[in-house]
Amino acid sequence: MSEALAQCSDLRRLFLDDVPLMDVRAPVEFAEGAFPMAQNRPLLTDAERRLVGIRYKEQGQDAAIELGYQLVDATEAEQRLAAWQAFFDQNPQGVLYCFRGGLRSKLTQQMLADAGYRVPRVKGGYKAMRRFLLDTLAEIGRDAPLVRLGGRTGVGKTDLLNEFDRAVDLEGLAVHRGSAFGKRAMPQPAQIDIENAMAIALLKLRAADPDRPILVEDEGRCIGSREIPLALFDGMRRAPLVLLEETMQTRVEQGMKDYVFSLHGEYRALYPVEEADRRFGEHLRKALARLQKRLGGLRHKHYTGLFEQGLAAWLGEGDQSGFREFIAGLLRDYYDPMYDYQLQAKQEQVVFRGDREAVKRFLIEQGIGRHDGL
């Protein structure tokens, strides 16, 4: 096989080395799921792909290729080729792929070769890479030594987890804090994108040292509107559980940080001030409305009043006391009862519990990884 038609079959290396990927699938395909190191430089637009696909089914490959050339005029073809060349100028170690490593990637590869760019394509394309990552999640869920970090809402589990180098922040990858108020200002990535990112992060830690534990946060199956892949979740449910414990005052301050200051800052970064404040308030109102059934009518009405007063005082005068009262009440009346109920089913898996410093020391002793603070 000529160098121009070289294929890359070492999928593990692609992900471990963060090899830049040029995805030549149509934009709609890319939006449904891709890889963290991939950029979309399509061979065909969504509309062109649909028409070519119809021709392929009706008249075969040669007719489909001919239609593709008819749909893309010379100027557009030059622009697409220039985009591919720019990608490989910036990423000389990159590779390209289409859905199955077939016609589209071959055509793109040949057009680049004709222009003097000899680059490999992924054997099996997106489908093979996706299968590799799903198999990776299944293997890690079955065999990897996982440790869960749990605790009540507001103890700062995510902050502590991110201090360790052998940890994967599942909530960070899912762009959601994992609770009723956990939705972020930014939308969550596609389900496939999150699964791919989880698999790659775990693959790297597993490859670096297969015998040392990997720390993850104790999660339910769903993180916002996305799911932890079942194979991984089953492994998490079997893993030993370490509980982080903190005072109510510390938890309230953590709640202010996560659900007020950080969230408000996200909205301010995305929108003009007045629009950001409006969206921030509406965001929390919707989250509170979803708790009405569990809180009951009277308590829900009470907390709605506290929230509105706290929001007005904070945005208007910088007074944070109302929000702190609101958060403390929700921790006491909503989150803690739910946590106590769920913990009953996990008691046999608890191997350690303690405050922040005690949990740090225990995790380091278990070989979780480097921690610069101790």
Descriptive overview:
The chain has 374 residues and is an alpha/beta fold. The chain has two domains: 3-123, Rhodanese-like domain (Oxidized Rhodanese, domain 1); 133-374, Rossmann fold. It contains 17 helices and twelve strands. It has helices spanning 11-16, 27-32, 46-59, 61-71, 74-90, 103-114, 125-143, 157-161, 170-174, 191-208, 230-238, 248-270, 273-289, 292-295, 297-317, 321-344, 356-365, and strands at residues 7-8, 21-23, 38-40, 95-97, 121-122, 146-151, 167-168, 214-217, 222-223, 226-227, 241-244, 350-354. Helix 12 (248-270) crosses helix 13 (273-289) and helix 13 (273-289) runs antiparallel to helix 15 (297-317). The longest helix has 24 residues, at 321-344. The mean pLDDT is 92.
Q: Can you lay out the helices and strands and say which pair or pack?
A:
Elements: E1 7-8, H1 11-16, E2 21-23, H2 27-32, E3 38-40, H3 46-59, H4 61-71, H5 74-90, E4 95-97, H6 103-114, E5 121-122, H7 125-143, E6 146-151, H8 157-161, E7 167-168, H9 170-174, H10 191-208, E8 214-217, E9 222-223, E10 226-227, H11 230-238, E11 241-244, H12 248-270, H13 273-289, H14 292-295, H15 297-317, H16 321-344, E12 350-354, H17 356-365
Question: What descriptors fit this protein?
Answer:
374 residues, five-stranded parallel β-sheet, alpha/beta, 59% helix, globular, Rossmann fold
> What is the number of helical segments per DSSP (H or I, 4+ residues)?
17
What Rg is obtained from the alpha carbons, in whole angstroms? 25 Å
Provide the spatial order of strands within the biggest beta sheet: 7-8-6-11-12
CATH fold title of the largest domain: Rossmann fold
Outline, from the CA principal axes?
globular
Average pLDDT for all residues = 92
User: What is the oligomeric state here?
Assistant: single chain
Query: Structural class per helix/strand content?
Result: alpha/beta
Examine the secondary-structure arrangement and name the CATH architecture of the largest domain: 3-Layer(aba) Sandwich
Biggest beta sheet attributes:
5 strands, parallel
CATH class designation of the largest domain: Alpha Beta
Low-confidence stretches are: none
Work out the number of β strands.
12
Spatial gap, N to C terminus: 55 Å
